[in-house]
């Protein structure tokens, strides 16, 4: 079992420590104590994250092969010649897209506008901390 501190669980899910404690009180999570520090089971936390995840509405009836969709606010658009760099804040994540300046203009992208970043990657790099023995 991967034990995750309550405060780290809250950070990972983008909620407050109090929210995680309410989930414990409601029976959605259980805690164990390791040297006086409350922890939750990482596997159960992952299950809860998936249960609570909400996908952006997909009302257009179009089927997509890309499953990674992040809806958020455009925070910055930098146009330099024929290219544009668009930054979005999607919950706790910043997503940056490079596109043609023409595409950014056609999409009316500007700070404060709502947009969805659709990501289809052939390479995804996963990192983890090495546990000390």
UniProtKB/TrEMBL annotation:
InterPro entries: Mo/tungstate-bd_C_term_dom, Mop_domain, Transp-assoc_OB_typ1. GO terms for biological process: molybdate ion transport. Keywords: Molybdenum. Residues 63-128 form the Mop domain. This is TOBE domain-containing protein. It comes from Gordonia asplenii.
